[in-house]
Design brief:
heterodimer, A: mainly alpha, two-stranded antiparallel ribbon, B: 70% helix
């Protein structure tokens, strides 16, 4: 009853090809945006911003990026942490080299630099596939982390080897540095996240995305029907790395403020983002959000239940978290390979007929 | 001959020894991959888990004691007995067999026929799960493992080779443990080859590796073979865990050797046991020599972290199936 096409007449091609063809979906979309932009910034406090909303939005961007590569183009990458590090360090170098330029431009440029690096490390994908490629992307992960550790130019020769974000503001409101308000952190991440999602959604709906999916489903067949694998694969790597780079830049500049590369962008981060898209749903933008929300909320929820309510020691709860995450990955791969997004799709199908399923 | 040359040889020898250990881990991967097409990322964590279990049994730790203490407020930690090493190893093998049965029964039976990459991701999940279980069972502190393997530099070799280049050369420093590991690895490979060539189960295993359906049609139980191969991989993981654990303590970083084994496999080919060994040696020697000749003097050191991956990456571009792998043929 809720998701009905009935009575929703499309009278132009623009109407016919819009992102959400069902009216109720459109209202829901606008409602979510309205709550995100108009309600949450006024009620958010430091705890909710730092524990839930800011990491969720940043990981959602990273998950969208990785989903383009893994879910849409079928090229498994374990180098996400390394590419996030590229975004972070590019943003840091730009912020310190050009203090007068707006941070928004820096973040976008950092995404661009990451896209170039990603395309470079995507070159082997033209020769190798599957988990051979996954292992090859590990080369990117370890090499990049080593590079940012060893070459002191990247961290401006600071003694600690850390990078810390200088204070920058957008429209006169501080968004990085020590004095930043939680709602300002939230808003800048929200803006980047929303725009990323809209771009990604439209790219994957259009001819670029169809080429990626053709490559994913069978690259030889795709080549025969006229998809250029060089351009499709490298564009997937570039676009994916662009989003991952943006998320890395925000992760460093807005969320953490100071970063040590091996700790913040190690191999664990690559796996975390990969888990987000497996649990959320491969090949779905909504799935990227769902997975990011799940993986951000799970540790918070476990901490509240395990440490605060039941009084377990923190390390035991952390071990439980590993067990639960591992088990969930396997359960999702066995029971629902398309992830939370598929559950959502099924729920929508049910809602269309509800309450008269026959 | 200059000192530098002899130092180079020492580095080379140590690289060979490290390579043997990489090859031990890679062996477990190859076994499972050949028999079931699963690329088992959890192999490294299996080594960690096996070593943890071994230490736990030897010291008489109570499994899940942290958890029990947290729930019931008790203060349990040890049974109060110590188990001799050999018995403990046998018990650990038993645990790894149970683990193999559980993995087969609850996970991979439900994933038969899935794409390789899905199976790979499932093993990443398995790796996390097993790591968590290992920590919950035995605690996450660093443990020392002592099953009576001789350790420390071999003075005999050092004395024999001292003064080779000039007065200032003190001889090759080679850890006895590495020599033991090399011998164990050779014995293990010989035993595996003998097993797969001369026993009924071994033949069945090779038949499954060749062709699943043909093997099924002549009455080989796939389920049994998969449990068998996971058990063998568990045993190999235990051996690798003992060697690495004796070398650097039983701790989380042990599971990261799995990541080191990946480039070994890519060099050697996923389906070849000799490939795993040759690949291991090439990676071991290559990364030590690179660090010695180029990494430490010019690049600021610690190149061992990535050299293996970059080498494998460059290698793959020219020969995607690895040194000894089967040629990859694609059909539309």
């Amino acid at each position: 009853m809720l998701y009905r096409e009935a009575g929703d007449f499309k009278t132009s091609y623009v109407d016919d090809s819009q992102t959400f063809p069902i009216a109720f979906d459109r209202y829901r979309y606008w409602a979510v945006l309205a709550v995100a932009f108009l309600v949450i910034p006024f009620v958010i406090d430091d705890y909710w911003a730092n524990a839930v909303f800011v990491p969720f939005l940043i990981y959602a961007i990273a998950a969208i990026g990785l989903n383009i590569l893994v879910g849409y183009c079928g090229q498994v990458s374990l180098g996400t942490g390394g590419f996030m590090a590229v975004g972070a360090y590019a943003c840091y170098k730009l912020m310190t080299a050009f203090p007068d330029v707006s941070i928004v431009i820096h973040v976008v440029l950092a995404g661009g630099i990451t896209a170039a690096v990603g395309a470079l490390f995507g070159l082997p994908s033209l020769r190798i596939k599957g988990f051979y490629l996954a292992v090859a992307t590990l080369a990117a992960q370890f090499f990049l982390v080593w590079l940012f550790n060893k070459v002191s130019w990247f961290y401006n020769y600071s003694a600690s080897g850390q990078i810390s974000a200088p204070e920058r503001s957008v429209l006169g409101i501080a968004v990085t540095g020590a004095q930043v308000a939680p709602w300002a952190q939230y808003m800048i991440c929200l803006v980047f996240c929303t725009i990323s999602a809209i771009i990604a959604r439209n790219l994957t709906r259009g001819s670029t995305g169809r080429k990626w999916m053709a490559i994913r489903d069978m690259d030889i067949a795709a080549e025969i029907i006229g998809v250029n694998p060089l351009r499709a694969k490298l564009s997937a790597f570039a676009v994916s790395s662009f989003f991952v780079g943006i998320s890395g830049a925000l992760f460093f500049a807005v969320y953490l403020g100071a970063v040590e590369v091996g700790e913040a962008f190690g191999i664990q981060k690559s796996f975390l983002v990969l888990f987000m898209i497996i649990i959320g749903g491969l090949g779905s933008i909504f799935g990227s959000f769902a997975g990011a929300a799940f993986m951000v909320l799970l540790p918070v929820a476990l901490k509240v239940v395990g440490v605060d309510w039941l009084g377990f020691p923190t390390d035991t709860v952390a071990h439980f978290q590993l067990v639960i995450v591992g088990a969930l990955i396997m359960i999702f791969l066995i029971a629902e390979p398309h992830g939370l997004a598929q559950l959502w799709r099924l729920a929508k199908e049910k809602l269309r007929l509800w309450p008269f399923p026959y | 001959m200059s000192d530098q040359f002899y130092y180079g040889i020492e580095v080379l020898l140590n690289g060979l020894m490290a390579g043997v250990l990489y090859a031990l881990v890679a062996l477990g991967f190859v076994l499972i991959y050949k028999a079931s097409g699963i690329f088992n990322y959890a192999q490294g964590v299996m080594a960690l888990f096996a070593a943890l279990t071994l230490v736990g049994i030897m010291e008489g730790q109570i499994p899940f004691s942290h958890l029990i203490n947290a729930i019931f407020g008790t203060d349990l930690h040890h049974f109060g007995w110590e188990v001799p090493a050999l018995l403990a190893i046998l018990l650990t093998v038993g645990v790894m067999v149970l683990f193999a049965i559980a993995v087969q029964r609850f996970i991979f039976r439900h994933l038969v026929g899935q794409e390789p990459i899905i199976l790979f991701m499932a093993t990443i999940g398995l790796a996390y799960f097993l790591e968590g279980v290992g920590d919950l069972m035995w605690g996450s502190d660093i443990k020392t493992l002592d099953v009576g393997i001789p350790q420390g530099g071999s003075f005999w070799i050092e004395d024999m080779t001292a003064g080779l280049g000039s007065e200032n050369f003190f001889g090759f420093f080679i850890d006895k443990l590495d020599i033991v590991a090399t011998i164990v690895a050779i014995v293990l490979v010989a035993a595996l080859v003998a097993f797969s060539q001369f026993t009924k189960q071994g033949r069945a295993l090779r038949a499954v590796a060749d062709d699943h359906q043909a093997a099924l049609s002549v009455g080989i139980s796939l389920n049994f073979i998969w449990i068998l191969v996971w058990s063998i991989a568990g045993f190999v993981a235990l051996v690798a865990g003992i060697m690495w654990g004796a070398k650097s303590g039983v701790q989380f970083s042990l599971s990261l050797i799995a990541l080191k084994a990946l480039p070994v496999l890519m060099l050697g080919g996923f389906t070849s046991i000799p490939g795993a060994i040759v690949g291991g040696l090439i990676i071991g020697v290559g990364e030590k020599l690179f660090e010695f000749l180029i990494g430490a003097p010019y690049l600021g050191g610690a190149t061992e972290n990535w050299f293996a991956y970059v080498l494998a990456l460059i290698f793959l571009v020219f020969r995607p199936q690895g040194l000894f792998g089967e040629r990859i043929i694609e059909r539309v």
